[in-house]
Specification:
The complex is a heterodimer of chains A (501) and B (474).
Chain A lengths: L1 H5 L4 H19 L2 H55 L14 H8 L3 E3 L19 E3 L17 H6 L4 H17 L2 H7 L3 H6 L4 H30 L8 H26 L5 H30 L5 H17 L3 H8 L2 H6 L6 H40 L4 H13 L3 H27 L22 H7 L1 H22 L8 H4 L2
Antiparallel strand pairs in A: 1-2
Helix pairs in contact in A: 2-9, 3-6, 3-9, 4-17, 6-10, 6-11, 6-16, 9-10, 10-11, 10-16, 10-19, 11-15, 12-15, 13-15, 16-19
Chain B lengths: L1 H13 L2 H44 L6 H7 L1 E4 L19 E4 L16 H4 L6 H17 L4 H5 L2 H7 L4 H73 L2 H30 L5 H14 L7 H16 L11 H39 L3 H13 L3 H29 L11 H4 L12 H7 L1 H24 L4
Helix pairs in contact in B: 1-8, 2-5, 2-8, 3-14, 5-8, 5-9, 5-13, 8-9, 8-13, 8-17, 9-12, 10-12, 11-12, 12-14, 13-17
The chains are: A mainly alpha (501), B mainly alpha (474).
Chain lengths: 501, 474
């Protein structure tokens, strides 16, 4: 009985032990704890299952993409090698001629640039349902790349996903509220408050210890649950220890914030109905209304130019580019490949390739300013949101979880930037050959640039911002607790609001 | 007696701080949502009208070229923003707005606004629909959760019963009193403001056109609020404790508004999995290349076509044909592709509809979700309208191809692909105009959600009636 020897020395510890013990008995008896924890198990299991389904879908698709890329390249390389050996020309659709750099770039030697799900992707769906996670490279305009998004039913997209991030940001606070909204008011409503007020332990101490105990219980249970769940769904706990620790740290700080807030409200000495209403009102304000308001503000301050304008501008620029210098081949630029080959005049595909490439580059150059406007506004909006994210912890908790899962805005921006660089490299390889009017030889197929996505160092900095966010949560929770403690100060105990039921 | 209870309940709410605060909060948010809604409607519509005109002008001004090249150049179809989007933007941000109509390819509708919004955009938008469906429902709970339990707790129920009031009159009176306060103090001011804004933003003519939908929405929202009043009152009578009743009602609200939609999405996805874009495109390509039976090929198809043309016109070689073979070949390949698209997109849309049918079944569990679906359907910002737009755009695309290929066939003799047409032909293609669905069609699509709302109202009224029968003092 080691604890007994220590207990007398630490009065606070002994207090906590007794209060926690009786709180435990009570929670066990009224089934509140059991139902909360059972719900939590269901939520976490369902959330991880949902996340797992999506990752599996992405992985399968990427595996198919890789296989297609490899098979296609090997087949065409072999075909070119055979043609070289036999000395025969290629027969077939001239636009897909693997011995021509144009045909190789657009169909025979397509490269893909992909973003594999991160080990912790199961935590948050984030932007992975809206943004493309692989791109197919060709010679076409950069704009044509942005057509690789998945097919999604908008009704499901609109509803959002039941992922772990949703459980943490939205549901966990509700469970905290359910567990705590009547800690003090319940005593009053059960008429046990006078007993506590009459005892040697202050109400402040009873309430605080109960909160600390329930917080510790929920945190331990939830952390254990998440770790077990992740392990069950195939995440290596040892390898991802740092990420999981961060996940649990953020979650615990977020819970601490809600426990603190609830303690502050509880300490006002109002009824449990009032507490529940204020806390759920606060939940709605912090999780739904304030983020929506921030979004409204971001759009009002830095309105995004319309994508519709971009389309019109691109078409206008294409027309212009074709008129200036490439008129003769402009016809072919739009032409149907098969028919172009059947036309009465012979088609010089090399010239066609060069001119269509030139037109593409020209168009890209022409609409660059509008694109920059887009990027600039997007960047400004992101900055505004980053500055004001402190209005609602839900915003930055969600962002932090998405950063851990590598499915947030920052990761997709990084991915797209690297993709554009890789596409430029891919196109440059073929451009050279097209301009020099070279043939694609079998050996050239091994030289087609291939790039792999790697996390940029900038993303680590994004994670570091999480330190201040966590500090905010703990600080706000602490302030709420102090506020609560001041409200239940002993001298005010005689006030009728504490005793009247 | 019923009117006395009604009046008492109404008056006591009028002086209640809860109603005052509810009105301030909801009206404040409403005004903000209304301003954002109107400016979104005006900006987007101005841009789209201009874009629609631009794309048609670009089409007309494309100069002399071969009709098939013109079909490749194509035009864009833009989805107009309905006037009622001011009140319920629904899924608009999650649906694409523009589609390129070009030869050979049925493109997907692109440009989802939410793609540019980032993480913050996924928390949801502040729209009037959101305030009316989610926040007002919550406010009703906060106003009504203790309307009966407080009579228990303060012992006034004993006094009430001494007046020989029937317990059903008591409950019904209370329900009507609360509903009156909610409608007069919260809903009506907002509705009038909204109507004014709609009339101002859309003009009298457009306003007259949407009036039936707006009126129906008003009636349905009133019924929806009645559901929440009766729900709160039933809980209050059943649980007899204000605290318990509030906690339970808040639970029902949170589950219905936030939990169910996400759960239903996951379930729908796993029961009816959407194919990956990769698989879908591959299937379309293979069927277009090898035919629906998988036996054909480009060469075989061309050979058969030539043989048929020679046979039809009774000539020996293509050069003797009285029409342009290119025109025949192009239209034949379009005809073949249309079958593939009808098959594949048809299957995809049926899959979406199966997923949506499942989501709608879950609406039966939550009046909030049922109301949300009906509301966005009336506003014309739901998936059905989007699919309707997609179909109309595709019909227009096919019209462009047909007009171009027919001209090639008739006028492109001998010249074949060197034949050039001009503005006279381009003008034969009319500007794309989206035809709105009729109110009847919209209601037909939403019959299940409407049924859910009706079930909730009837079921809850029955519950209230039962509670009245079992209402007792001890």
């Amino acid at each position: 009985m080691q604890t007994q020897t220590y207990l007398p020395k630490y009065n606070a510890m002994r207090n906590f032990y007794f209060i926690a013990f009786y709180d435990w008995l009570m929670l066990r008896a009224n089934k509140m704890l059991l139902s909360c924890f059972a719900l939590l198990v269901l939520f976490v299991a369902f959330a991880l299952w949902t996340g797992q389904q999506r990752i599996a879908f992405h992985r399968t698709t990427l595996a198919k993409v890789k296989a297609t890329e490899k098979r296609q390249l090997a087949e065409k390389r072999q075909l070119v090698a055979d043609l070289e050996q036999s000395g025969k020309p290629f027969t077939g659709n001239s636009h897909r001629d693997p011995t021509e750099p144009n045909g190789a770039a657009n169909s025979a030697a397509n490269r893909y640039f992909s973003l594999a799900p991160a080990p912790l992707a199961v935590v948050a769906v984030g932007q992975s349902d809206l943004r493309a996670y692989y791109y197919k490279f060709g010679l076409h305009k950069k704009q044509a790349l942005y057509h690789g998004e998945e097919i999604e039913n908008a009704s499901i997209l609109y509803n959002g996903h039941f992922d772990l991030a949703f459980v943490i940001t939205f549901l966990l606070p509700l469970l905290v509220i359910a567990l705590t909204f009547n800690v003090v008011a319940g005593e009053k409503e059960r008429s046990t408050l006078p007993l506590i007020l009459a005892s040697t332990t202050s109400l402040r101490s009873v309430a605080l210890n109960k909160f600390v105990f329930r917080f510790a219980l929920l945190s331990l249970f939830f952390s254990g649950l998440v770790v077990m769940g992740l392990a069950f769904f195939g995440v290596s706990i040892a390898q991802e220890a740092a990420g999981i620790a961060a996940l649990l740290g953020i979650t615990t700080a977020y819970k601490a914030f809600w426990f603190g807030l609830s303690f502050g409200i509880n300490s006002q000495g109002k009824g449990s109905g009032f507490n529940a209403a204020v806390l759920v009102g606060g939940w709605l304000a912090l999780l739904v209304v304030l983020p929506a308001l921030l979004s409204v503000a971001a759009n009002a301050y830095y309105p995004m130019p319309s994508r519709v304008e971009l389309i019109a501008e691109t078409r206008e620029a294409s027309e212009e580019a074709k008129k200036n210098g490439a008129q003769i081949l402009a016809q072919y630029f739009e032409d149907h490949p098969e028919l172009a080959a059947q036309a009465s005049k012979p088609v010089d595909t090399k010239n066609f390739a060069a001119s269509s490439l030139m037109v593409n580059l020209e168009v890209e150059k022409a609409i660059r300013p509008l694109e920059e406007k887009f990027e600039a506004q997007k960047d400004k909006q992101a900055r505004l949101v980053a500055q004001w994210r402190f209005v609602s912890p839900a915003i930055f908790v969600q962002q932090m979880l998405e950063n851990l899962a590598a499915t947030g805005d920052a990761h997709y921006l990084d991915f797209e930037q690297q993709m554009q660089a890789a596409h430029a490299k891919y196109r440059a390889f073929f451009t050279q050959k097209i301009i020099k009017q070279e043939k694609m030889r079998a050996a050239d197929y091994d030289q087609v640039p291939q790039s792999q996505y790697t996390n940029s160092p900038g993303l680590v900095r994004a994670n570091r911002a999480g330190f201040w966010d966590t500090l905010w949560l703990l600080g706000a929770g602490f302030v709420a607790i102090i506020w609560g403690l001041l409200q239940v100060a002993p001298q005010k105990m005689a006030e009728p609001r504490w005793i009247e039921a | 007696m019923l009117t006395a209870v009604l009046q008492k309940e109404f008056r006591s709410l009028l002086v209640d701080a809860r109603l005052r605060w509810s009105a301030i909060v909801s009206l404040g948010l409403f005004v903000l949502a209304l301003i954002t809604g109107v400016s979104h409607y005006q900006n987007t519509n101005r841009l789209y009208t201009k874009a629609q005109e631009d794309t048609y002008r670009q089409w007309l001004d494309q100069g002399e070229k071969n009709p098939h090249s013109a079909a490749h150049y194509g035009l864009y179809a833009y989805k107009p923003v309905p006037l009622l989007a001011i009140f319920d933007r629904g899924m608009d941000d999650y649906l694409g707005n523009a589609v390129w109509l070009e030869a050979h390819n049925q493109n997907e509708v692109k440009l989802r606004t939410v793609q540019d919004a980032g993480t913050i955009g996924r928390f949801g938008a502040l729209t009037i629909g959101f305030i009316w469906q989610f926040i007002l429902a919550l406010l009703i709970i906060l106003l009504a959760y203790n309307s009966l339990s407080k009579e228990y707790e303060s012992g006034t129920l004993r006094m009430l019963f001494s007046t020989q009031i029937s317990s059903f009159s008591l409950l019904a009176g209370k329900a009507l009193g609360i509903l009156k306060a909610v409608l007069l103090c919260l809903y009506l001011p907002m509705f009038l403001l909204l109507s004014g804004a709609l009339c101002w933003a859309g003009g009298a003519e457009a306003f007259a056109r949407i009036l039936p939908s707006l009126g129906l929405a008003a009636v349905l929202y009133t019924l929806f609020y009645a559901v929440f009043v009766v729900l709160s009152l039933s809980f209050s009578a059943w649980l007899r404790s204000s605290g318990l009743s509030l906690a339970a009602l808040l639970g029902v609200w949170a589950i219905g508004a936030f939990l169910l939609p996400r759960i239903s999405g996951s379930v729908a996805m796993s029961l009816h999995p959407t194919p990956s874009a990769l698989d879908f495109t591959e299937k379309v390509l293979i069927q277009r290349e090898k035919g629906l039976d998988g036996q054909s090929s480009y060469e075989k198809f061309q050979e058969a076509l030539k043989a048929k043309a020679l046979r039809d016109y009774g000539v020996d070689s293509l050069s003797q044909l009285p029409v342009s073979f290119a025109g025949i070949a192009l239209q034949a390949s379009e005809d073949r592709d249309w079958k593939v698209y009808d098959l594949q997109y048809g299957a995809l849309f049926r899959l979406f509809q199966a997923q949506n049918a499942l989501l709608e079944k879950i609406n039966l569990l939550s009046p909030i979700l049922a109301m949300r679906d009906v509301s966005r359907s009336l506003a014309g910002t739901d998936l059905y309208k989007h699919l309707n737009f997609t179909r109309q755009a595709e019909t227009h695309r096919r019209l462009v191809a047909k007009v171009m290929n027919t001209d090639q066939k008739i006028n492109g003799i001998k010249q074949e692909r060197d034949y050039k047409a001009g503005a006279a032909l381009w003008q034969k293609v009319p500007q794309f105009q989206y035809q709105n669905q009729s109110l009847g069609e919209q209601l037909q699509q939403q019959w299940f959600s409407l049924l859910s709302l009706g079930c909730w109202l009837l079921g809850l009224t029955f519950c209230l009636y039962r509670s009245a029968q079992t209402l007792h003092l001890d």
